[in-house]
Amino acid sequence: MPKVADPRLADKGRLAYEWASKHMSILAKSIDRLKDERPLHGIKVAFCLHVTKETSMLVMGAKTLGADVSLCAANPLSTQDDVAAFLASQGIDVYAWRDESMDEYYSCIRSVLANRPDTITDDGSDMHVLYHKEFKGKSNYKPIGGTEETTTGVIRLRALADEGQLAYPVIAVNNAYTKHLFDNRYGTGQSTMDGILRATSILLAGKVVVVAGYGWVGKGIASRARGMGARVIVTEVDPIKALEAHMDGFAVMPMDEAARYADIVVTATGQINVVRQEHIKAMKDGVILANAGHFDVEIDVRWLESNARERRVVRDNLEEYRIDGKSIYLIGKGRIANLVAAEGHPPEVMALSFANQLLSIVYIVKNHAMMKNKVYGVPEEIDRQVAINALEAMGIRIDEPTKEQLEYAKRWL
Which of 23, 74, 281, 317 has the fewest CB atoms within 10 Å, counting from its CB? Predict the structure, then answer.
């Protein structure tokens, strides 16, 4: 049986779903193109995603295409309970509520896997990894394939593949151009700022914001922070990305130096202990720490908890730690700030990501017998079709190459 916080929230969740659908016409076009064919008829599709209004559009789209759908959360704190209740009312097997314990979180993932899904769509690869740890080789159940939404999850899957342990083909949706160029940059950039502002209600103009990591997520955060008047410092371990940040007009320095100037520190690396003891000790009174990465490992929260003389919640999703006479503020327990303290990405950018997800699931269903157990990129035709759908949804027309130009492009002399 589905398990949600409060089934009575379904009507409120329906309104959230309807609002998202108004702004996700890119995804709607993909669904409309395939709904008569119903390519997922008879297929069990599992989703381990942040349960938001945008996710509801993807989940309902999979059902429209014929799938038997189950859903759990990709983070213990990111579920929107009204959306979970709405989806459960629509016949979706939902196992998700906000503020799950870690035991409850993994129990929900196990409940979805117990449905023996044919495909797994994950965000962070907790479901993929749990299948390999607890289900692989212990029964005759094996998915035909999967997809992965985020950088952290792709890294884990590549490690499985490199060890020869990956049990089924997976498409790295995160790596689609129409995903990481827009979702990671524009979506996370805006929604992380949204989460910081909701949690703190501070003025960004004039503040020093340190952004750890200058991948697509870090670029988006740095750009949005500067756009709101902040002075931005970037920290990096990759010399090429550091050079790019410098050329983009940001100050670049090591974290141990940047920490001394920071009013706000935002991590966006996917790595462990990016902000740690020596950095926190160097920070000034009142600094705010936020994480935009998938897992709560980028800020050393354990050190904060074990060394604070006093700890209290001062606002929703904002805790104060008193250390060495200073106040250190942590947003969302060090978990992904845009989903814990805000509502996640705007629907317009999630429409791009979820169109890639849905079309990749359909691709796996049709082609899994010819695929090896490895991590694949999103097929180029899917990426391009999503871009075409996006332009059409926005009412944007572009040129087409002439016959002469096509012939010229083939010449070498």
Answer: 281
